[in-house]
Design brief:
Layout (H helix, E strand, L loop, with lengths): L11 H11 L3 H6 L20 H12 L1 H10 L8 H8 L10 H12 L7 E4 L5 E2 L3 E8 L5 E7 L3 H22 L8 H16 L1 H14 L6 E2 L12 E5 L13 H22 L1 E3 L7 E3 L5 E3 L5 E3 L2 H15 L3 H11 L8 H14 L10 H14 L6 H20 L5 H16 L2 H20 L1 H13 L15 H29 L6 E2 L2 E2 H25 L1
Parallel strand pairs: 5-9
Antiparallel strand pairs: 1-3, 2-3, 3-4, 4-6, 7-10, 8-9, 11-12
Length: 549
């Protein structure tokens, strides 16, 4: 990540600092290496009635679409961030001002490779939806007359993301180095992962792939579908899918029995995705679902999708059983199997924390805690105690929570345990069938025996490399994240100092020669050199004083 450049961000940086101060983060900014001139004459709102997490959400919404998208991505990391913060970040919604079609049209022309009229018989230039990364338009294909949804990426979005992410990166590094309370969250690492996810969402081919995978795997539920993708018209910055007429669950009007049926259908679909196929929509909130006139469910916006293997599904079933039976010891044993490494943990402390969590949420279902909420809190406890699980588990917890919330909009008595139980029982039967046991025992033993046969050969190869003096040991230094900025700053000052000294010496030599033109009786070149040296010297002194202050 490149060092922060105040000159390149001369407009955006003061704007971001001003918004953070308005929402009560002045004390935090004072702990960072924030230049004093950015903190002067700023007005702070009266936000004492809001929690720090609520203030952070409001600040993200005011900071703009990239910060909103960044917050939405962070909301999928319950293993690294506390559950109350995730609940606030989940509330972030894209309420973005539409870009004029004149600005976004060149993107469409470039991606289509031809004029819009050559592809679409009718194209409504007024967007039906606007997000932080793109806008959706309604159109009609010229070739078939089918109505389609055309999603076009915003103009100059990469430039905007680059500028904002540079500033977010600077804040993340400063917070990690200077605020000890935030160090366990490893914000720079979170930022790198978020940037990777953002890059994936910027490529609409990934969204098209996810929708097509879901369509291929979801043959058992005809009443649940994803929009058909027109591959020949889809590219990195343009996505064309079938147009689906439908209403979001929080706006639809249904009879009580119809609403209950749709809620159950949505829950069954998500568990079929998770347990049955292992490929699931990672963000099935109300804004990403449509209910059609014939009471089918359409999942839209496939930018985020998760995938878990068969073994991960077995772990999920064990974890679900351990949570519902409030068995803290079993939760830890399953979590250790889910972990990406076998780091030592304080089992006594972790068991105490998990027991408290399970006792706090003693009731599940309509009148109790959402299973998804417990999952988010549990993943955070595991992460803070050294058990790092795969990010797909975090997406899975978020998916379950989203479907619980959406289903309860339609049916307040929706109980996700009743929906999940048949799928988990089916998974358990498959797990302990003869064929499954054979795959889990005999085949691994055969692979282990083959690996043991290769041990002498591998040892011989290592010894040969030692003998030929080709063996290398790589070291990775940690705790030096801020060294690059310090080194660059020191080198800049040293360079200016060398230039200053050269100007003083050169000007001293010139001013004694009497070379014309003259200024106040002395050579003008020498006078200019002295003035330049004085200004550079003053800059170094002020910069040093401000830095140490």
């Amino acid at each position: 990540m490149k060092p922060f450049n105040y000159l390149a961000n001369a407009v955006r940086a003061p704007e971001i600092v001003a918004i953070l101060v308005r929402w009560g983060f002045e004390d935090l900014l004072l702990q960072l290496d924030t230049p004093q001139f950015l903190l002067k004459n700023l007005v702070r709102k009266k936000v004492a009635h809001l929690t720090a997490y609520e203030r952070l959400r409001n600040a993200c919404e005011e900071l703009g679409p990239i910060f909103v998208k960044f917050g939405q991505i962070l909301s999928t990391r319950p293993d690294r961030l506390p559950e109350p913060l995730l609940m606030e970040l989940k509330k972030l919604r894209n309420d973005v001002e539409c870009q004029p079609f004149e600005r976004i049209k060149p993107v469409a022309l470039k991606e289509l490779g031809r004029e819009i009229e050559e592809v679409f018989a009718d194209f409504d230039s007024t967007p039906v939806a606007a997000g932080s990364l793109g806008q959706v338009y309604r159109a009609k294909l010229l070739s078939t007359g089918e109505e389609v949804a055309v999603k076009i990426q915003r103009a100059d979005i990469h430039k905007t993301i680059s500028a904002d992410m540079e500033i977010i990166g600077w804040f993340a590094r400063q917070l990690h180095v200077r605020v000890e309370e935030l160090r366990p969250y490893n914000l720079p690492s979170l930022l790198r992962e978020a940037e990777k996810r953002l890059e994936e969402e910027l490529n609409y081919n990934n969204e098209a792939d996810n929708a097509e995978i879901f369509i291929a795997l979801n043959t058992e539920q005809p009443r649940v579908f994803a929009p058909k993708v027109y591959r020949e018209l889809t590219s990195r910055r343009l996505l064309v899918t079938e147009w689906v007429d439908g209403i979001a669950p929080d706006a639809v009007t249904l009879k009580r029995d119809e609403a209950e049926q749709i809620a159950r259908l949505g829950g069954e679909s998500v568990f079929h995705q998770i347990v049955g196929t292992g490929f699931f929509h990672a963000d099935p909130h109300s804004g990403n679902m449509l209910i059609t006139a014939d009471q089918r469910i359409c999942f839209i916006d496939w930018g985020q999708a998760g995938q878990i293997t068969l073994q991960m599904r077995y772990h999920l079933a064990d974890l679900f059983a351990a949570i519902t039976s409030r068995d803290a010891d079993k939760v830890i044993r399953v979590a250790e199997q889910m972990a990406m490494d076998n780091r030592r943990i304080d089992r006594r402390r972790l068991e105490k924390d998990i027991t408290y969590l399970l006792n706090k949420h003693r009731r599940f279902g309509p009148s109790g805690t959402k299973i998804g909420t417990v999952g988010l809190e549990l993943l955070y406890l595991l992460g803070m105690n050294g058990i790092e699980v795969l990010p797909d588990y975090a997406l899975l917890s978020k998916s379950i929570l989203c479907v619980e919330e959406t289903a309860r909009i339609l049916d307040p008595n929706f109980d996700i345990q009743k929906v999940a139980r048949p799928y988990l029982e089916k998974l358990s039967k498959e797990r302990w069938s003869f064929g499954s046991i054979q795959r889990q025992t005999i085949y691994p033993m055969l692979r282990m025996m083959k690996s043991m046969q290769k041990i002498p050969e591998n040892v011989q190869r290592i010894l040969r490399r030692i003998e030929d003096e080709e063996l290398q040991i790589n070291f990775h230094h940690t705790g030096t994240e801020n060294m690059e900025d310090t080194f660059n700053s020191s080198m800049n000052r040293l360079t200016i100092g060398i230039i200053l000294g050269s100007l003083l010496i050169g000007s001293s030599l010139v001013i004694t020669t009497g070379v014309k033109p003259l200024l106040w009786g002395y050579p003008a070149i020498g006078i200019v050199g002295f003035l330049g040296s004085g200004l550079l010297g003053l800059y170094i002194v002020l910069s040093t004083l401000r830095k140490h202050h």
